[in-house]
Amino acid sequence: MGKSAVVKDASRCTTCRECIRPEKFQDKVFLGKQKDVFEFTVESLGIYKPEEIVLEAISKLKEKAVFWHEAISNPQEHGTQI
Fold this sequence. Notes:
Layout: H1 50-73, H2 75-78
């Protein structure tokens, strides 16, 4: 494949696709996303630190994931229909 370049600050890329529009770049530039990366920002103006908010959110997300896993595995027990 040869040389490669990586965007220095991916958060600044708007995925406008201008880098692959010119015909001369279409077979040289691959525009994709990292599927195993999820970035987000947490801001807090209250009494909770962002770290505390994230930990609580992860806890709630885990509770909901367990609930839905059980609901899908045993729909009759949870009164849900699939």
